[in-house]
């Protein structure tokens, strides 16, 4: 019954993540994903394989309550995008943290810090951020030349030519990318770090940066041009495009009136930017827990409502809103399948084997209980996986199906 393609360590990480906070781990999603493939396949075919790769840009808004699978959906899309030669960046937006959506300069900084190159098919770990992104591009490019039976010196000459030919409309960004790669190429680590610090939005040392020909400071007025420049950089380096996954970690109405108005204005501008040629190769997916932030009577609310009115479905891929609850048809079947997958992962993690009858009894019991919670404030999917893992622990230790009282959380 256990999954032979799953390592015990990864299985343990999955169980720890799902049984604790109930949030999906960054790896191993394919071992317990249920019901997302129809929507993900459409995004694959319509956007990743076609429109974005051809130079288009698009914006989607994913709607799902807390614990309803937003992050899982974004991670799954991230993995598919990386497999199709896209650079990606996942950003958790928090008004009290480092990346509130009402402050686009901080959002740029978070996108830059989360930047990952495409998956190269190896298990090699790659750190996030523009520094690692540029180093990974350089290493991959050098490796490509060397596989063409070039000498190391000749390969380095070709790489130097590639760097000189990088062309971006944003003069400061073009200068920075070239200088960073030239510095890395020539083993000038201090210069590489200084320029990458600017690219990552981590500060502005005017005297040091002017030495390299960089004169623009990242602030709210320059954030959009910097985001556009990052997209162009990704395409210029030979990748299919940039997929940015923005995960709104709290309800927008909790913001102050001023910050909410700025957030809505930024959101409208970002949607409009996706209709411009300057954003070519950009796919933005913005996940929110509800749509209450659209309830207002001012012009900015009405403008956003119009832009976000259409619903994405398998037969209408151009729709903007992805309603996660609609990805599940039969909720009972969904939970039963998910419970079985979690049991398989648990068996690998703890090198055990469950009695089929006792396990089936527990899956049905927990699924029925979780479905009764479906219309609460917290997502029934998260409640299910947390309770299911608690039940698996009980079943592993006692060999019999627990009662709900023994495994459900106390208020």
TrEMBL record:
<dbReference type="InterPro" id="IPR027417">
    <property type="entry name" value="P-loop_NTPase"/>
</dbReference>
<dbReference type="Pfam" id="PF10923">
    <property type="entry name" value="BrxC_BrxD"/>
</dbReference>
<protein>
    <submittedName>
        <fullName>Uncharacterized protein</fullName>
    </submittedName>
</protein>
<dbReference type="InterPro" id="IPR021228">
    <property type="entry name" value="BrxD"/>
</dbReference>
């Amino acid at each position: 019954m256990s999954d032979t393609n799953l390592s015990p360590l990864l299985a343990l990480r999955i169980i720890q993540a799902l049984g604790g906070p109930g949030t999906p781990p960054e790896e191993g999603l394919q071992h317990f994903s249920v019901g997302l493939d129809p929507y993900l396949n459409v995004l694959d075919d319509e956007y990743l394989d076609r429109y974005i790769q051809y130079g288009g840009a698009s914006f989607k808004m994913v709607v799902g309550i807390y614990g309803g699978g937003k992050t899982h959906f974004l991670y799954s899309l991230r993995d598919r995008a990386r497999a199709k030669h896209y650079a990606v960046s996942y950003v958790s937006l928090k008004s009290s943290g480092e990346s509130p959506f009402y402050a686009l300069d901080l959002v740029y900084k978070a996108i830059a810090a989360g930047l990952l190159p495409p998956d190269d098919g190896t298990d090699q770990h790659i750190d996030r951020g523009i520094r690692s992104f540029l180093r990974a591009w350089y290493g991959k490019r050098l490796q490509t030349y060397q596989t063409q039976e070039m000498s190391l010196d000749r390969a380095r000459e070709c790489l130097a030519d590639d760097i000189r030919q990088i062309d971006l409309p944003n003069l400061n960004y073009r200068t920075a990318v070239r200088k960073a790669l030239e510095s890395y190429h020539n083993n000038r680590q201090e210069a590489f770090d200084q320029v990458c610090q600017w690219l990552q939005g981590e500060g502005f040392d005017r005297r040091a940066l002017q030495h390299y020909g960089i004169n623009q400071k990242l602030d709210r007025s320059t954030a959009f041009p910097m985001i556009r420049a990052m997209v162009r950089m990704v395409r210029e380096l030979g990748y299919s495009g940039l997929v940015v996954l923005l995960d709104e970690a709290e309800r927008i109405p909790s913001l102050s009136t001023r910050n909410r108005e700025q957030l809505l204005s930024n959101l409208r501008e970002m949607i409009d930017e996706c209709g411009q040629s300057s954003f070519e190769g950009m796919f933005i997916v913005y996940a929110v827990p509800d749509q209450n932030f659209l309830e207002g009577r001012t012009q900015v609310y009405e403008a956003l409502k119009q832009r976000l009115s259409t619903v994405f479905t398998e037969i209408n891929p151009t729709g903007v809103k992805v309603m996660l609850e609609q990805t599940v048809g039969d909720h009972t079947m969904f939970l039963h399948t998910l419970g079985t997958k979690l049991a398989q992962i648990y068996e690998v993690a703890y090198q055990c084997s469950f009695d089929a009858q006792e396990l089936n009894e527990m899956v049905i019991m927990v699924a029925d209980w979780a479905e009764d919670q479906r219309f609460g404030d917290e997502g029934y999917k998260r409640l299910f996986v947390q309770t299911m893992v608690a039940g698996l622990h009980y079943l592993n230790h006692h060999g019999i199906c627990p009662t709900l009282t023994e495994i459900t959380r106390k208020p």
